[in-house]
Specification:
Layout lengths: L4 H5 L10 E2 L10 H12 L10 H21 L6 E4 L2 H12 L8 E5 L8 H10 L2 E5 L10 H5 L6 E7 L11 H8 L5 E5 L11 H4 L3 E4 L10 E5 L1 H5 L24 H15 L11 H28 L4 E3 L9 E6 L4 H10 L2 E2 L2 E2 L4 H6 L7 E5 L6 H16 L1
The chain binds pyridoxal-5'-phosphate.
Amino acid sequence: MTYDVDRIRARIPALADGTAYFDGPGGTQTPDLVAEAIAAALTSGLSNRARNTQAERNADDITVGARLAGADLVNGDPNGIVFGRSMTELTFQVARTLAQQWGPGDEVVVTRLDHDGNIRPWVTYAERSGATVRWAEFDPSTGTLTVDDVMSSVNENTRVVAVTGASNLIGTRPDVAAIGVELASSDALFYVDGVHLTAHAPIDMQAIGADFYICSPYKFLGPHIGMLAASPALLETMHPDKLRPSTMQVPERFELGTLPYELLAGVTAAIDVLADLVPGDEGSMSRRDRLVRSMMVLEEYEDALRDRMRTGLEAIDGVHLHGHAPLRTPTELFSVDGATAADVYLGLAARGVNAPAGSFYAIEAAEWLGLGVQGAVRAGLAPYTNTDDVDRLVAGVAEIASA
Ligand SMILES: Cc1ncc(COP(=O)(O)O)c(C=O)c1O
């Protein structure tokens, strides 16, 4: 099956300005269907969730619909889909809640490869509760984090193992499913940060063996919000801080304050757009199956385009790529001899190519790679990236490198 990039490009108004957007790992551009769904939620009657008035039913239907869509995306249970302001905020909340049960002698495992959103919440609450933090290190020369790198830090005292599904800095995809198999016989909870991965591959949190799978719809064509998936039975065992009148029901127990219904409508629309990246069979295939099909085709398309980008960048004198893991997302981090990362970023921006510089909150990984906080330049592909974008990026970097 071939991927029709022009079809999705036609649905993204921002692309009309001619910019080549390589900053998708920081947040993708938005399809009109998503923006329209958000506007429609806000311009229809919209009250707090209940079933008495149409406006209440609108809020309720939107919420239930977004949980169903989120569950389809990650192969989760709709009653275990929690929405929050961001991955970071939700992870702090989960860590704070789990840490109620931790004390000296307990351990948590984090990795040097992760975005700080899947490190600092665990470190903060481990330290506060007296629990020990163990670090799984990746190989800086290859960018690879192996199953052994993680499992060698796990023992019978481990309470949580927090691992990224993919590095937002260098694209490395650790074998989270194999880690999940290893952890299945332990009491440790497996917390998988799928923020970067979810935009690039079909996701099956059951196959991964994740107790928690977290992602952020604004990385996959949706609005700025976070989404956590877990089994309702696990969520029932947890007692987050809450207001006295707010419900103890799961998953609402974890959703503090009034939900942003308009953003939830946008989440559903974004997931529908992903399912429709490869169109057809709406009547005969479930949304889940269409999502898997679309994301498999997208993954193949993005892999081929990444090869084109990588080959082009590698051919430029003075360009150094930092990610080399065999299994990676289409995200390249690179430096250019004689130019700071910020110079390259600004030079590309002047050419209408958006590829930012930094460590992108994967600060541990950037330091481990020897890049420091200033990091390097990141070029990430998104469902709307085409060969013309890639060729403009490569040409721009070549000009900057030879200046
Ligand atoms: C891999 C990864 N994890 C976590 C986050 C944090 O997500 P949020 O902005 O939803 O808190 C990001 C954001 O860039 C990310 O790329």
